[in-house]
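Researcher: Go.
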Amino acid sequence: MEKKKISVQIEGRNYSLITTDDEKYVHKVANEVVSHIRKVAQSTKQLDTRDCAILAALNFCDDRNKAVKKNKDYVEKADKIIQQTNELNRLCKEYRDKLTESMNDNTRLTMNNRELEKRIAVLRHEVSQLKEKLGSVEKGEEKAESKKSEPEKNSVPKEKKISSAKNNITEQSDDIPVNVLSNEAKKTEQELRNEELLGYVPMTQFSLFDEDKK
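Model: Structure:
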């Protein structure tokens, strides 16, 4: 910005200031200096204008240094607050990510739970069907066993059948005449004679492992 010359009056004296600031701002600063000098002059009436100006300048410097120190403290506090804010933002982001992950896990678990409930319902239906089939099979087996037991009750035991058959045979043999039995015996004797005449020789079977016994 272009520098310009501004004239101000402090305690009856004119001062030419070369500055780039606005003229209103420069006059405002000059008026503040005048008010501080008059304030010092009122507190110590024995001092002349020059001494009052020096004391006012000292007060300005003191105020400025304290303001700078406060400003520095404020800046440091602001930096700490900014760091804490950044840390809180980081933690907030982590918690947000964890919350999102937890919500996704919850959604997945809910879906898995629904799938498991559907499978359980299907399995229960299948179990009920199997129970019905098992009941029908058991009823069929009971009917089959009852049908088997009925003919067993009506049937005659085997021992009784065998004994009755033997009795029938003995009864039949008793009824055969004696001369018929003798004829049968004669037939067998005649057959033996015929076999001897034809040269029938009974064969004896030997094993390969019986050579030593021969």
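Model: The chain has four helices and two strands.
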